[in-house]
Amino acid sequence: MKKILTSLSFVLLALAACEKDNYESPNAGLSGAIIDATTGNKVPQQSNVGGGYLQLFQTDYPKPSAIQSALHPDGSYTRDFIFDGNYKVVPTGPFIYQDTLQVAISGNTRLDIKVIPYLNVSCELVTKTSNSITVRVRVTQPPQSTQQIAQVLAVAAPFSSVDANTYMGTRGLTNTSAVANSQVVATTYEYTLSQLKPNTLYYVRGGSRTNNTGNFYNYSPMLQVTTNP
């Protein structure tokens, strides 16, 4: 009798395991970009720690937990391995975002999110040598953004995840906390990034930060510059 009960227990456990294995795995995804509502361009982001992120809350269930994904440097995002369903979407980063977004995700779904960036940053190449790159950085501030502009900078690295904290060689940096915003946006900042290697491809970005909660940076689109031999 004991052997029969033991065998029956194994059968029940096996059936339970099979039933558990029959649950569908998450096979949906959400992708898109953070878009400047005024220009229609992507809003570049910090590459590493301290960058913007996206949170998804599946509203089909009470008290859903946040599903969080980092935003990519070019302003795009991708979140795979989630279930089909209804979600609330909450982006956080160097921008003003007010509308609550609801999206029905079915399979691979795309959603572009319109925001107002705290700052718009441009970066242009001036000159280069075998061990340096000189750029000009300019900053503009949308009228909806009134925070003090705290920093302007330029960085370079031989990898595309370059940002204010991750770079090679020297970093160009100007503290502007005590400078009027009107003066900052009227100024062209020129930086020479030195201690670079000859004949090497560098990814270069201009950046700027307001005094915002989270200390998020806004960035220019990425430049690709190869130093001279």
Describe the protein in words.
The chain is mainly beta. It has two domains: about 90 residues, Immunoglobulin-like; about 110 residues, Immunoglobulin-like (Sandwich), CATH 2.60.40.2060. The chain is built from two helices and 17 strands. The strands form four sheets. Strands 1, 4, 6, 8 and 9 form a five-stranded mixed β-sheet that branches. Strands 12, 13, 15, 16 and 17 form a five-stranded antiparallel β-sheet that branches. A hairpin with a 4-residue loop joins strand 10 and strand 11. The chain is globular. It starts with a helix and ends with a strand. The N terminus is likely disordered.
List the helices and strands and how they pair.
Layout: H1 2-21, E1 28-36, E2 53-58, E3 67-70, E4 76-82, E5 85-92, E6 95-96, E7 101-105, E8 108-110, E9 113-117, E10 120-128, E11 133-140, E12 149-157, E13 172-175, H2 181-185, E14 189-193, E15 201-210, E16 217-219, E17 223-226
Parallel strand pairs: 1-8, 1-9
Antiparallel strand pairs: 1-4, 2-3, 2-5, 5-7, 6-9, 10-11, 11-14, 12-13, 12-15, 15-16, 15-17
Spatial shape: globular
Treating each run of at least 4 consecutive H or I residues as one helix, how many helices? 2
The appropriate CATH architecture of the largest domain is Sandwich
Query: How many domains, as an integer?
Result: 2
Write down how many β-strands occur, each being a DSSP E stretch of 2 or more residues: 17
Q: Quick one: CATH class of the largest domain? A: Mainly Beta
Cα(first) to Cα(last) distance is 85 Å
Main sheet attributes: strand count, strand direction, barrel closure? 5 strands, mixed
Mean pLDDT: 91
| CATH fold category name of the largest domain | Immunoglobulin-like
Kindly provide the radius of gyration, computed on alpha-carbon positions and rounded to a whole number of angstroms.
24 Å
Instruction: Report low-confidence residues grouped into runs of 5 or more.
Output: 1-21
Secondary-structure element order, as H and E?
HEEEEEEEEEEEEEHEEEE
Structural class: mainly beta
Strand fraction band? 35-45%
Helical content class: 10-25%
